[in-house]
Amino acid sequence: MNGSSLALRQRSLGDASAEFPLFPPLTRGCPLTSTSEIAYPLEVVYDYARVDGSLFGQEPGPDIARWSPLLPPLDAPTLGEGGTPLLKVGDVYVKDESSNPTWSHKDRLNRVTVSAAVACGAPGVVVASSGNHGASAAAYAARAGLRAIVLTSADSPPAVQAFTRAYGATVMSVPTEKRWPLLREIVDRLGYHPVSNQTVTHTGHPFGPEGYKTIAYELFLQLGEVPAAVFAPTSYAELLYGVWKGFVELRLLGVAGRTPRIFSCEPAAGGPHARALATGAPAAIVEPGPSDAYSIAGPVGGHRGVVAVRDSGGEAVLVTDEELRAAQRDLAREGLWQELAGVAGLAAYRKLRRDFDGPVVCVATSSGFKDIGVGSRRYPAVEDLTVDDLMS
Amino acid sequence: MNGSSLALRQRSLGDASAEFPLFPPLTRGCPLTSTSEIAYPLEVVYDYARVDGSLFGQEPGPDIARWSPLLPPLDAPTLGEGGTPLLKVGDVYVKDESSNPTWSHKDRLNRVTVSAAVACGAPGVVVASSGNHGASAAAYAARAGLRAIVLTSADSPPAVQAFTRAYGATVMSVPTEKRWPLLREIVDRLGYHPVSNQTVTHTGHPFGPEGYKTIAYELFLQLGEVPAAVFAPTSYAELLYGVWKGFVELRLLGVAGRTPRIFSCEPAAGGPHARALATGAPAAIVEPGPSDAYSIAGPVGGHRGVVAVRDSGGEAVLVTDEELRAAQRDLAREGLWQELAGVAGLAAYRKLRRDFDGPVVCVATSSGFKDIGVGSRRYPAVEDLTVDDLMS
């Protein structure tokens, strides 16, 4: 749409001097710096000197290919991801990612990772996911004419199970502990391209956060300035790091003069990034307690989230399910129905009660249709309802 | 956003010489031409001579206020409706309206009708709906700080019931035959503004289709030309008429040189517009048989759909549930999961097998999450899944 990719190579987040060719994507983390306890992800380096300044003169809209110079090659077709609304709700802005093609932010990532699968000539993609990521990967694979295997959980909400299965992928519920060994074997034996994590701490796909950078570009154009702070639901922190990197690039390119503080927003029942930041570790693994924010309540953190929060001057915020539920209810009363995990940014902002010297953005990631319990209740007809009943 | 509304007055579709002030919206149809058997809707007339030609030089995007000169006054805030993706799928373009704030096209209508409620000083809105329309009205009312009463059906899919109830509205399941008398009483006694129909054949809200005009504007800009044909799921034909009127305006304003053929796409189990067009009636009521496309399978048609199809040189197409299911499955295999009713446009295009002298657009109206049966099935974990199982 706006010229071809200026991506040059991969670079380790464990050691910036460790660089690798752009392909193949190192989906098992940095081979030089990772240890048996901490895996370091890769990021993508671009030829920034060649970026045309007019790139940020355009309007946001569907199809992230409008940012193609600052993305890895987009060999998979679009489903219309990006260009989501930004709404003022109370004293914050809410970026509504539920308007994406599969109704979550994950579509920005999967446009990029499924493109990598196409570029690599893989016969399909494989993903371990209990919800949004799996369905989004299945949708983009279908659109690209690739097969998809989704290893999911029998505990996913039934409506989400229907969603994940809608796109023609091979979807199998498997016990959680068997998901990752099976995923690795599918990669090794079938040659499928992995679009979810394979490492001890999270590294995921090195190209994934690049898709999320487009949220930063859109926010800058929608606000007309860089926000003072961004709060985002945080699981593996690919979203968080992508948003951070997008703003870093805007400053690097001279488009913007500052970067926002980035806040990781995790369920209090777990919070691997909060743990890592508190202990000074590059990444952490925790034993999470129960949380209904199932999309972001995993045990495994990654180094990307630590980098985004630390380098931006942000903080890790933990929110309880009760705080999430209050934010979810209040946001719905403003016309935005989000999955419980999707409001972690707003819940964390409200909990922190901090003043900022500029706009604050809470990224809301996913539709309320994906929540636990949706569809579990029927409401019988009230046979003799009268207007007087409604007035009382 | 782009200047204030140029709406002047209401005009009857029963007699173009019958004109009325813009407010109050005549939500019970044209008082001069309607009979006990056929109700005629109103439309909105604008001061077209004052439309700035630069209006169509802008990009589509969220918030239909960008088209405010050609809409009734937008006194209710946006949720980011509009700016939805247009995707090439096979030999047609699919306009994916599931990317709207409540994941259906209805948001374009409700931005406009809830605005009318605000402008009228109503304490709330009332709507009779089994799904998308009710939830969307509830969301826009919540955003505008108005109360909402949704009279819905106990037969709606459970996930849709959760959706409708999410936004804080008073939602009551009532027997179908009691919905409309109750709605009228709520309007008369509580002063609530009705955003759904109150008349014998459908007239609905006179401002409603104005919101759908923005689909025509977007299609023109996204395609760079007027399509040869538009196929859209048809229930009351507010969408169909709105799209038609938008293209009529583009031609009237000299922006475009032609208009598309408009095809009403109804379930074969009913099809009041097909009936009216076949018999030459201004509108019709049928006794529908069973259909799982519950969003568009009602008995009552309206004059708007007859006008759009007849004046555009289009046709009425009826599709069976089997044809809908095939289109739904095939579209999901391209990465777009739609409600069964949402693919009626595509199913009708495929059934018609007609060649057109230009691009064909099928409007896809709503997310697959809203379908019957979604969430009714659980998939147990496969304990001993192996890669060999996946290869076989």
From TrEMBL, chains A, B:
This is Pyridoxal-phosphate dependent enzyme. InterPro entries: Ser/Thr_Dehydratase, TrpB-like_PALP, TrpB-like_PALP_sf. Gene3D superfamilies: 3.40.50.1100. Pfam families: PALP (PF00291). Residues 78-365 form the Tryptophan synthase beta chain-like PALP domain. PANTHER family: L-THREONINE DEHYDRATASE CATABOLIC TDCB (PTHR48078:SF6), THREONINE DEHYDRATASE, MITOCHONDRIAL-RELATED (PTHR48078). Keywords: Lyase, Pyridoxal phosphate. Its cofactor is pyridoxal 5'-phosphate.
